[in-house]
Amino acid sequence: MFLNSLLTNFAALEVGQHLYWQIGNIRLHGQVFLTSWILLGALLVFISLGTKKMENDPKGLQNLLEFLWDYIRDLARTQIGEKVYRDWMPFIGTLFLFVFVSNWGGALIPWRLIKLPSGELGAPTADINTTIALALLVSLSYFYAGLSNKGWRYFEYYVHPTPIMLPFKILEDFTKPLSLSFRLFGNILADELVVGVLVFLVPLILPIPVMFLGLFTSAIQALIFATLAAYYIGEAVEEHH
Amino acid sequence: MLAFNFFGATEGGLFDINATLPLMAIQVVALTYILNSLFFKPVGNVVEKREKFVSNNIIEAKNKLSEVKKLEADLLTQLQSARTEAQRIVSEAEDESDKLYKEALELANNEANASKEKARLEIESQTSAARDQLSKQADDLSELIVNRLILEK
A35 — contact with chain B (CB < 8 Å)? Predict the structure, then answer.
């Protein structure tokens, strides 16, 4: 059957296969941790190099890091507001950097050259566990932000501007993490799949524009994730009058 | 599970959720703390210190500028008052010199008139003296003529 041959072709791309690590009776997706450790290690090395010798007159890497810091601050400040953005800036920035480094790392580094016994290395954000973990952290954060800033008055948000909104606002608490995680997961996985299929079918030239598109999508997804996370936190701490 | 079967994986699949999720969450939280102490705090300190430095300098410069403007305005009013003072002094001096000139002119006129009058009087007196003398001489002459005429007869 045609469908069957198609499926075996897809299987050659090793979609949905994982490198399992068994610790006690918990199972982990090893390839996700391997790539995330490599990428985060590179990120931390980069940042340590840039902040090693901080000067009032920035040079080289420090310039880049200050630009990045400023970018993240603007993002957090516009979404969360002047009052509490400072508390949340590291979290928003970490989300942005983690997603960005994961997406670009997954797209730029030829992981396929490293053979694993099962599954293959790729962007950590192409694994549903990672994106759900990030999305749930965002949910916890905005609940915590709302409750710590406004106490029980946080729940006024659910009946604002009218109590009719209550079911929708409750539903939102579920759709927010769902949409956050699936948007990121879907975009990055789709990008990897498209590039993988194209490379599989036409190994020359044709995948290159799609790869560039992938880089673009990756950066945009990181920005979207961080912006939405900041927006949700900002929504939770916003004062209604 | 459609996804599991569609992609032909014997175990796992695309939507295989397991302990990777909480561990990844813990890893991201840890990363937040690491990045906070390694990146956000130090870079923030430097950037905010510089921003404070720049804004302080701007405020200082603004203060100095306003001070300069105040001094400039002060000087301008001083200049203005000095100018009016000078004008006043000049016009006063002009008035005074005008007055002096007029006085001198009047004095000179008076003097000239007086001397003219005196001269006129003198001329008049001399004229009348001369006329008296002339008429006396005419009298003498006529007397002489008369005498002679009388004597010849």
Answer: no
